[in-house]
Design brief:
transmembrane helix; transmembrane; membrane; Glycosyltransferase RgtA/B/C/D-like domain-containing protein
């Protein structure tokens, strides 16, 4: 007896959305499980600390969203624009939730790039995303009302787009340019990222139209912002703080005797000379910028003159004079701050108050009553989110910025004591990426070069222009992970030379492979 099976139906309907989703999650089940666990940690954070955490810089950003008519003299308003977009919802909890999604989005970009473009196995691409997903300080940074996570997502997004496409159209170049403009308007250090991308595309011999479109798309919003800044502050710039911040960088070693400053001829510079000798100064330059204490001269011109165009220009001239007069002292202090990033431990720096703002706190946060553009820091916060609780503290009404709820808050405090990415691991990742650049010297570092330079630059730039701060390290971590993962994909050996073409015989049909597309593993 012969059984004849049914002929297959050629008109069978395609699988439904549910089936496609299950198949997708099955293919990426390891990363999906890790991502879900990381999301759960962020839910615990939100349950433990509502609505958000605060840093000293947070209040300036909130003021920019509550009073959007004038740009900040201290820092670009890009993050304030995001807060302004979300302001109709009147919720800092929503801001924190969105920033947690941004952090998870960074991990998704890492995984997608390494799997789809460079062909890493699922476990390898997942491992590269683990520091962003589980580092307690990354989670805490996402919960702060701060610009850093938005900046991180923009930078990683730009690097991902550039590495994903072998050939870029001018339209894609324009999109990347707009993203770079948002990056620069979020943090000033975003503009050097544009220079890195341009150099990388020139090395890759990208069409000039693409590069021109990218530069133009980046320049237009930045120039427009600078024009707005000029209308408010009188000078065509993005901030009035770059010279002041550089003054802070040089304040620990600047010696007016070695600088040759004559008080009779250069009184404006002489007024900035710090009276205490360098050997007796504080170990952090922040003391000589933010607070008018003994021996600190930045506030010598009076309250309200600190971040004006004139003061910024004078402070910048002083700092440049110090660097040119004492180059070895400058290089020494930059090197010290650069290598401070790679400790196994986490020494308290620059002071206990700043250090503790990166820890999950054991108590509620009472917002300070500091003067702002058109009010005070606590009233600005209440104007943005009227749901913030007001409590009587020492017989005065005070705004509570962060509430604690146990056991969730206690859990995250304990988690932070155990799960963190040591600085020495970041250094090891950079060394692995550097090895990948070196072995690809014939192609000027190949695909490893861009993420590695960006990670290295994001750590070096604060050390060279401001001062070490732990939060400046975190945006470099995903880029360092990218560079190391691409390097380790094929070990430290040089990429193999392409095989010689085989001539097909009349009896053999030769098929010429098509160029690699965006989803094809890159030879790196």
């Amino acid at each position: 007896m012969v059984t004849v099976t049914d002929r297959p139906r050629l008109d069978a309907p395609p699988p439904g959305r549910g089936a496609r989703l299950r198949a997708f999650l099955h293919r990426h089940r390891l990363f999906a499980a890790v991502l879900a666990l990381a999301f759960l940690l962020r839910v615990v954070t939100m349950l433990g600390y509502g609505p958000a955490l605060w840093f000293n810089d947070s209040y300036e950003y909130v003021s920019g969203a509550v009073n959007p008519s004038r740009p900040s003299a201290l820092r670009p308003n890009g993050y304030s624009f995001l807060l302004l977009l979300l302001r109709p919802l009147h919720s800092f909890a929503l801001v924190a939730f969105l920033q947690h999604l941004m952090g998870l989005g960074v991990a998704v970009l890492i995984y997608t790039l390494l799997r789809g473009r460079f062909g890493l196995p699922a476990w390898g691409a997942t491992l590269a995303a683990v520091p962003v997903l589980f580092d307690a300080y990354q989670i805490q940074l996402e919960h702060l009302i701060m610009s850093d996570v938005m900046f991180m997502l923009l930078v990683v997004g730009v690097i991902t787009l550039v590495l994903w496409h072998r050939r870029m159209s001018w339209r894609l170049g324009a999109v990347i340019g707009l993203m770079l403009a948002l990056t620069a308007l979020t943090r000033s250090i975003g503009l050097p990222i544009l220079a890195l991308v341009v150099v990388y595309l020139l090395v890759k011999r990208t069409a000039w139209r693409t590069i021109a479109a990218m530069i133009t798309a980046c320049a237009l919003p930045v120039v427009g912002y600078m024009a707005w800044f000029a209308s408010a502050h009188g000078n065509f710039a993005m901030t009035n703080s770059d010279g002041a911040i550089l003054y802070m960088r040089t304040s620990l070693f600047a010696d007016c005797t070695k600088m040759g400053i004559d008080p009779r001829e250069e009184l404006d510079l002489a007024l900035l000379c710090i009276s205490a000798p360098p050997s007796e100064r504080h170990f952090s330059g922040q003391k000589y910028l933010w607070w008018a204490q003994n021996g600190q001269r930045f506030h010598a011109f009076g309250v309200g003159s600190t971040f004006t165009p004139e003061m910024n220009k004078t402070a910048g001239a002083f700092a440049q004079r110090a660097i040119l007069s004492q180059p070895l002292d400058y290089l020494g202090i930059v090197a010290g701050d650069f290598f401070r990033a790679f400790h196994w431990g986490r020494p308290r720096f620059p002071d206990a108050v700043t250090y503790l703002q990166y820890e999950f706190p054991p108590t509620i946060k009472v917002l300070p009553v500091w003067s702002s553009y058109r009010g005070s820091t606590d009233t600005d916060a209440r104007a943005y989110d009227p749901g913030l609780r007001v409590a009587a503290i020492q017989d005065k009404p005070r705004v509570i910025g962060t509430e604690l709820n146990d056991p969730w808050a206690t859990f995250m405090q304990g988690y932070q004591r155990v799960v963190r990415l040591p600085g020495i691991v970041i250094g090891a990742l950079l060394l692995v990426g550097l090895a990948g650049v070196v072995v690809r010297w014939r192609t000027l570092g190949g695909a490893v070069l861009l993420p590695w330079l960006a990670a290295f630059g994001l750590i070096l730039a604060p050390a060279a222009t401001a001062e070490f701060d732990y939060r400046y390290l975190l945006p470099a971590v995903p880029l360092a992970c990218m560079a190391a993962a691409i390097t380790l994909r094929r070990g430290f050996s040089r990429p193999a030379a392409p095989a010689a073409p085989v001539t097909a015989s009349p009896a053999t049909a030769a098929v010429t492979p098509e160029p690699a597309g965006p989803g094809t593993p890159d030879p790196a």
